[in-house]
Amino acid sequence: MADRAIQMGTDPIGKLLIRQAVPASIGILVMSLNILIDTIFVGQWIGANAIAAINVVLPVSFFIAALGMSIGMGGGSIISRALGSDNAALANKVFGNQITLTLISTLSFMGLGLFFLEAIIPLFGGKGALYPLAKIYYIIVVIGVPVLGFCMMGNNTIRAEGKPKNAMYAMVLPSISNLFLDYLFIYEFGWGMEGAAWATTLSYVICGSYILYFFVSKKSDLSLSWKDLILESAVVKEMGALGFVTLARQAVVSITVLLVNNILFSLEGENLVAVYAIISRMLMFALFPILGITQGFVPIAGFNYGAKQKERVVEVIHKAIIYASVLATIVFVLIVLFAENIAAVFTREPLVVETTADVLTWVFLSTPIVGIQLIGSAYFQAIGKAIPALLLTLTRQGFFFIPFLLVLPRYYGSFGVWISFPIAEFISTLVTAFFLQREVRIYIEKT
Hints:
It is a single chain. By secondary structure, this protein is mostly helical. The protein has one domain (15-445). It contains 17 helices and no strands. The longest helix has 37 residues, at 48-84. The mean pLDDT is 85.
């Protein structure tokens, strides 16, 4: 077993968690900044409707890309535990099956996405003046989504084998290149939405190239043979069960965006859809340190669970929740203090700026406790318990947010949409905390 993997079972938990979380946080930060600045470029150089149009397309492309992410995280959970139990053959077999499944699934859904584009775009809120802009962006981005799927799968696999810095590089390179290409294609060449779409797609190619280089240049501890590419039912079943947690989460996110876009469009038209686009970018950006801790937590918990080191498993849960909660509280305070400044960065349109500033505080109201929900659901995925992981993952947006979203706007208009976010977060956190505490108690009591 490689030294880097062994360190996950021996190094102090606090030091180890920081070492895993910081590169993950930096990678997410750069990726989020990329999305954020991309939105700013589009809003300033094309217009607020262009921001709304991209927000219509993202849930579709992200869902297809989530196939790669789900395969990466499902397989990554098995790989971490296999390395913890010193089973290199299983880790290699899982990696080969990940590659095969990613290619088959993403290419298939790309084809379906292009075939049904005329129905999909209006369904996700691409109506009226948003439709032609969304269609331009959709076609180009969806063509590149299989490469993004490979990137997501590879990135999670790299992190699972205990190499967070390389996983960070895989996120940083395409983010930086996308910003450069945005400036070149949109501002210098004047390509508008086509330029924004091509910049995004080419950045996927750059990311995929680095990940391919990582695996073929022997930087990885995984050693792939042709026979590992042949699907094995037992591996596919476990990987699919665990990966389905991630896929279901992204599917619910896509459904949520569909509902929010359509509800807001029906209430006040394109302006509110643009407001939600900005809010959703801030949700991705502002939570980067908490998501980084969650990603750093998963391989540590999985490795030590596989190595049967109970004390280290419990310690990493406690420290991950504490770190995440402190950082989440800081994020919330900054959002409240600078809400108007944040909104003004994205667009010059006064109504959109004013509405966004008012809404930010409500949407982020429950941010200080979000770490409990994220770490709790991630723990069950890390230890290979797919059903609890799935149910806890779906509590926030599936079981609670969507019902509130369908009811509250009828009585409170757009405010009903915004207040649904913190209410759902609070309830789902209580549920997650209960099941996590029970699971840890049972785990400790096992002989």
